[in-house]
């Protein structure tokens, strides 16, 4: 019976590490998306400022997840933003961004954030099950920051949308 429990725990650890890696992947993709969307949102001061703050938060979150992976003997890939995201940013600067994509960008952002919050929910449950108390504390902090960020986005949505409509007409 003891070996079955140890085997089951190994399985839970593997699942936890896979979920951490998945969370890092979505965080990295979110960073890339924010970098490519920033130039097209420049006309919307409140949204642009929030995106810059979120970019800093996302980079810190990615580093925290890398640290957790490393703590458990699974070093994550080095921090990077892909060449494609840099090219998207440069392309947006030349084209000035597409205003009609602002709503799509906000919806994409909300989708990423919702996924990240759900992912953190699962990670917290797994870390708690494994007794990784310091991981739980960090993951709960990231969860709180994500919730604050999405709440701010939702709070500002009516003003951003009104500004969008005013500039589109």
TrEMBL record:
Short name of one Pfam family: DUF892
Record's protein name: DUF892 family protein
Superkingdom as given in the UniProt entry: Bacteria
InterPro entries linked to this entry: DUF892_YciF-like, Ferritin-like, Ferritin-like_SF
